[in-house]
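Lecture notes, unit on protein representations.

Consider one protein chain, 243 amino acids long.
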Amino acid sequence: MTQIRIDKVLSQMNIASRSECKKLFQSGRIRVNDSCVRSSSAKYDPQKDRLYVDDRQVIYQEYQYYMLYKPAGCVTATKDLHEKTVMDYLPQGIQRGLSPVGRLDKDTEGLLLITNDGALNHALLSPGRHVDKTYIAAIQGTVTEDTVRIFREGIEIGEKKPTAPALLEILNAGAVSEVAVTVTEGKFHQIKRMFQAVGMKVLFLKRISMGPLKLDAFLKPGECRELTQKEIQELKRSQGLEG
């Protein structure tokens, strides 16, 4: 990694604003290795040097990746004037510039990836990539093998083209059926509209996977954690990105 400005790092890592950084430099509270740094335009190499604010070492991460178990009742947005957003569930003091990858409806819960890795975000959402997204759903109505066939062939939901083939698995059929459904698109309210097209209604919807990334079974709604290095590498490799 080439040298980068210290004030940019501290700002991105949510440690201090640019104006606050100037005061830190002036008061001699910033060190690189064993040397005090007072120039507000100073740079350092995160791979070779150690950066300190007072006695606290700052570990720079160019990209951050969070898995959130999105609860129902919040919107998938970075900010909203009237609604609670998924960003409100992230820990304080994390790096700026994070955003959700794709969206889940307000009443839908489950796996949501939040990152500042623009290349990965773009790859996962690109229509040509056909990234599998699997949901567990409760359906008002009896889902049958005929429904499975219709989903597999694609469904007219009022757009120019039918949906791409979707994999529908019946977990429990009845007046309220439990199913798993895997789609490769991200059309607006897609799964709800697909079931509506066959005369049924989605009562509950939870995303459990996106590509190779699976929702952590130990997370509760509203909880999040950073992705492991293995999960990051698998996600990048699945999209042909360097991992």
